[in-house]
Design brief:
Blueprint (H helix, E strand, L loop, with lengths): L3 E2 L6 E2 L13 E4 L4 E7 L4 E4 L7 E2 L37 H23 L16 E5 L13 E3 L2 E5 L5 H10 L7 H19 L4 H8 L6 H11 L18 H24 L3 E2 L11 E2 L10 H21 L12 H14 L4
Parallel strand pairs: 7-9
Antiparallel strand pairs: 1-2, 3-4, 4-5, 5-6, 8-9, 10-11
Length: 353
Amino acid sequence: MKLFQCQVCDNVLYFENRTCERCKHRLAYVPELGTLSALEPAAGDTWTALAAPDRPGRLCANADYEACNWLVAPGSEQTFCVACRHNGTIPNVSDPPQRAAWQQIEVAKHRLFYTLLRWNLPLKTRTEDPAHGLLFDFLSDPPETQGPKVLTGHDNGLITIALVEADDVEREKRRKGMGEPYRTLIGHFRHEIGHHYWDVLVRDGGKLDACRAVFGDDDQDYGTALQRHYAEGAPPDWQEHFVSTYATAHPWEDFAETWAHYLHIVDTLEMASAFGLEVKPRLGGSQDLAVRVDFDPYGAAGIQPIIDAWLPFVFAMNSVNRAMGNRDLYPFVLSPRVIRKLGFIHDLVHGQI
């Protein structure tokens, strides 16, 4: 993720900002330009983005609910922006708790779309592809007597996110109950979209053999594999081969978990680069822990520059978190086998397979 700057007063802006805190200009993200822009009112319901003054546009309809700060493309007849047009079911916006939870979910979803658009990955709606187009349902649990709880998951392009995952307390309870070191809304989005792009880029993109050579045979029964995983857990040497215990369940989950971690790493490194961060430990013989994050990880030629920057950076950030009494920012080990899998994801995203 980048840092942005107000075109009026040069104030530093963050991706989710809707108003510049210094000059009070309204702000919107312009996805075609990949930038956040100050706005000036134009004709009717349109706004002039100062980053592109010759291209007035409308705010996404979800801006009315403070759930989106993106502009619809100029000249488009769409009501929703390129991210929100993939929404299927949204919560009851007249209910304040559901509306607040949805707003938190949209923050994570828009950060996901920032990444997908940076790489120009295929994004078809259900209208464009009724069978496999990308669609999000954000669902609240029914009353206990009226059915089972909503499960976050993916099914042929339909990604379901349980609304309760926006509750920090409930999400932490689930994290601890499932023995997970990490559980966030953006993590859910990045994992589930990995399943979608396995369908789009691997299965439908003619990359099955190449993928199986790295992640294993996905023909094994998925339901049986999950039952075995929940009954027996991960093998003792799982960290030598997988990025997480859940990745051991089935090659599909291995792919989705690795995909999610690749997105975690790249987007976090871009933020580090935006701040000009440098790791330079004041210890003798510590060159392996030194790095300056001064490149664009989204455009890296291969996985190695990303890993070379990530390992010392995350070691430093984990150490800072521990100094505050918090859990590690990134509580995972990247073995050589996992780095090879991350390299496959990198090459797949960049069309190099």
